[in-house]
Amino acid sequence: MTAEQSRSPSSVAQSFYTRWATLYDALARRAPGVGSVRTEAADALALDPGETVVEMGCGTGANLPYLAERVGPEGTVVGVDFSPGVLDVARERTREFPQVHLVRADATRPPIRPTDAAGVPHAPDALLATFVSGMFDDSAAVVSSWADLVGSGGRLCLVDLAETTDPRWRPLNPVFRALVRATAPPGSRTMRASPTKLLNRRLVAAHRALESRCRVTHETTHALGFARVRAGVVE
Q1: Are strands 126-130 and 100-104 parallel, antiparallel or unpaired?
Q2: What is the 3-state secondary structure (H, E, C) of 192-205?
Q3: Tens digits of per-residue pLDDT, 81-101?
């Protein structure tokens, strides 16, 4: 057994995303249509000045300025990610936004205890998860836990990439499948099952969980149908 094989999947993934943080940041900022997706997601949360919003799996922080602008200087944005490398990039990106706070943690067990101006704990008003739902073995349970975190009346938004169902762009699905395999952490690339099929199963479960816990208020597709934005209010 090699040293790489003996490490936990979590530590391997952390090292992988840290190593490729700069490349992922370039893709996060420059991929076609990604700017409209981030704007759409921030708008779908219907944030007001002074509110608290959490982003699970914030990565290099590409969404954080969009969120910070909407909650304003009196609001709070909490970015959660488990990879120190991507958080370093996010920290640099958000230097001009003092309302942004970064936490290195597992999005399935976030140590989130927001407080109001008086120091009284309260639930976040909204939660965003972009391109991370497909990383969890039990994505439905994770999404349900996020709904519990924001509580009744809180808003939840999932943004994910999956094969397009638009007939005009289906010929590009093989390219998407190749990208999914190429960008998967070591270990997941050698699985017998298709990484894209695994991704699809997890995303279906995640979005069904959102639908079961929320009154869906927003559904759109972007980037030739590969990107999906779905948001709702927890009931």
Answers
A1: unpaired
A2: CCCHHHHHHHHHHH
A3: 988 888 999 999 999 999 999
